[in-house]
Design goal:
By secondary structure, the chain is an alpha/beta fold. The protein has 11 helices and 10 strands. Strands 1, 2, 3, 4, 5, 6, 7, 8, 9 and 10 form a 10-stranded mixed sheet that branches. The two termini are about 40 Å apart.
Length: about 300
């Protein structure tokens, strides 16, 4: 009888506990690891967060509004510029007006890798350039940069990651875009001096809506000098929900803030770069989150779990 009562009590507890979802990125990327970290610290507070893979930032904008059970997503900070200036999807534009930031996350540098004949960003004019799979974060950043600088490649190739790198190595394209925190594992593990690749600088006044960044010399084994580029912020976002969803998102935000010191020590290394109080241009903080903010804990706090890497 005792076992039966316990089982009934557990079932009732699970049925009343918030069940939420977060859309992230690819299975091997940083976004999904950040999402998993949030899930780990939320569960001891009775919030069950399903961490979902995603095709990228644009898809995540749709999903936080349209996908059943999803209230949170991680996107690149320039997704709003892309939607406003370039996209012709009217439904996407309407959804974007109701997006809000939960927290800023970490910086992701824009890498433009090309052959040695390319010296500046404007040398991409009339060239064959891989800009990532459609609807991916790299895709929207490349399209936004081309829009803002007036550069028109002869061919935009929808390849990303190793496929784009292989295509560049074979001479099928002249350059590729890749958005990732430096050092990007793709380049650290899959390129050598013999490839005769170089990073192309993105030091252009037309890109003043982006963060400035530098990829230091030696970040990659073949990189002899520093490269000035731009960067985006990864942003934890939500839709402007009301009622119960408002309360649930605010609970998750509060848990993140209270456990930030623990995440710095035990979570993905990118958590150490996160400033939860940073203000993002054009990204209002979700009102339900802003209303519950407190000073961060001075000592690491978190679930009594061991993260295996």
């Amino acid at each position: 009888m005792k076992i039966l009562v316990s089982a009934i009590f557990l079932a009732m507890s699970l049925s009343t506990s918030p069940r939420m979802g977060i859309v992230t990125g690819g299975a091997t990327g940083t976004y999904i690891k950040i999402g998993e970290d949030i899930g780990k610290i939320a569960e001891p507070s009775g919030i069950y967060l399903q961490v979902l893979e995603s095709a990228g930032s644009i898809q995540n904008v749709f999903d936080v509004r349209k996908k059943r059970g999803v209230q949170l997503g991680i996107v690149q900070s320039d997704v709003l510029e892309y939607i406003r200036d370039i996209s012709d999807d009217q439904e996407l534009k309407v959804i974007a007006t109701k997006l809000a930031a939960v927290y800023p996350l970490y910086k992701e540098e824009v890498h433009v890798l090309g052959n040695l004949s390319l010296k500046t960003l404007h040398d991409l004019q009339g060239k064959r350039v891989a800009i990532g799979p459609q609807r991916s974060g790299t895709y929207l950043t490349a399209k936004t940069i081309f829009f803002q600088t007036g550069i028109t490649p002869s061919k935009e190739v929808f390849l990303g990651g190793k496929e784009a790198l292989d295509s560049l190595r074979k001479g099928e394209i002249d350059a590729m875009f890749y958005v990732a925190g430096a050092p990007a594992t793709l380049f650290s593990e899959n390129t050598t001096v013999d490839d005769k690749f170089q990073l192309i600088g993105l030091d252009d006044k037309a890109l003043d809506s982006y963060l400035t960044a530098v990829i230091p010399a030696g970040t990659y084994k073949w990189q002899e000098s520093e490269v000035r580029t731009v960067a985006v912020k990864a942003v934890l976002i939500t839709f402007s929900y009301a009622g119960e969803q408002c309360q649930n998102v605010a609970k998750v935000a509060k848990i993140i803030r209270e456990n930030k010191a623990w995440l710095d020590v035990n979570g993905h290394p990118k958590w150490r770069e996160v400033n939860l109080d940073e203000k993002l241009p054009k990204w209002p903080q979700y009102e339900c989150v802003a209303a519950t903010q407190e000073r961060p804990q001075s000592k690491p706090k978190g679930p009594d779990i061991k993260i295996v890497r």
